[in-house]
Amino acid sequence: MSSAVVIPAAGLGLRLGGETPKAFREVGGDSLLVHAVRGLKAATAADLSCFVVAVPAGAEEAVGKELEPYVGDARLLVVAGGAERPDSVRAALDVVPVDGIDCILVHDAARAFVPADVIERVVAAVRAGAQAVVPVVPVTDTIKRIGPNGEVVDTPDRSTLVAVQTPQGFAPEVLRRAHAAGAAIGVTDDAMMCERLGVTVQTVEGSPDAFKVTRPQDLLLAEALLAERRLR
């Protein structure tokens, strides 16, 4: 048995600015998407045999050529994504092989520098019996819940709060069932879709390196992280 990974990379990433879609912005001479694929391939214990990437319509051939050198002997499929993230995940999920896959990862290209051990922890937890798994890190800021007029209504105990990262891992039949149910309205990740079906979502330790490139200052942080890794 082996794993497959779905990478939704069809979004524009407007908060990052510029005309290039976020997944194709470069850090250290390579796109975030290339860094993400390279990092996934480095997680050898995950046994990734299939990469499925959803990209803007019309970019399939070019992206396939760009990524081919980084997937090794794994299968690479590039499909046209949709208007929203769940649409892109669903389009990619539709072509993931049914046979021989015991774990499907869903990974954001914007989290391009996830350490291999995080990826391997997610896959190991799915293979140990968890139906849905997310990597998490503790919340360090004080969090406030606010009302419609901006007033503070509650301060949750942050010891019970975590920030969720990717890749998220799923038993294949669970992820397919979540998407077939069409419960995508208002969801921010695939684990939330599974939660709505009553599926228990397990957590594993994430990493500060798995931050999401969202704003221009995150590109600077990514450049610094990459430079540090190259010195190791």
TrEMBL record:
Keyword Nucleotidyltransferase in record: yes
Enzyme class, spelled out: transferase
Reactions performed catalytically: 2-C-methyl-D-erythritol 4-phosphate + CTP + H(+) = 4-CDP-2-C-methyl-D-erythritol + diphosphate
GO biological process: isopentenyl diphosphate biosynthetic process, methylerythritol 4-phosphate pathway
Molecular functions per Gene Ontology: 2-C-methyl-D-erythritol 4-phosphate cytidylyltransferase activity
Site (Positions MEP for the nucleophilic attack) residue list: R158, K212
Keyword Nucleotidyltransferase: yes
Alphabetical UniProt keywords: Isoprene biosynthesis, Nucleotidyltransferase, Transferase
CDD domains given in the database record: CDP-ME_synthetase
Coiled coil: none
Taxonomic superkingdom: Bacteria
EC number: 2.7.7.60
Site positions for Transition state stabilizer: R15, K22
Pathway, per record: Isoprenoid biosynthesis; isopentenyl diphosphate biosynthesis via DXP pathway; isopentenyl diphosphate from 1-deoxy-D-xylulose 5-phosphate: step 2/6
Protein task: Catalyzes the formation of 4-diphosphocytidyl-2-C-methyl-D-erythritol from CTP and 2-C-methyl-D-erythritol 4-phosphate (MEP).
Family: Belongs to the IspD/TarI cytidylyltransferase family. IspD subfamily.
Protein name (Swiss-Prot/TrEMBL): 2-C-methyl-D-erythritol 4-phosphate cytidylyltransferase
Gene name of this polypeptide: ispD
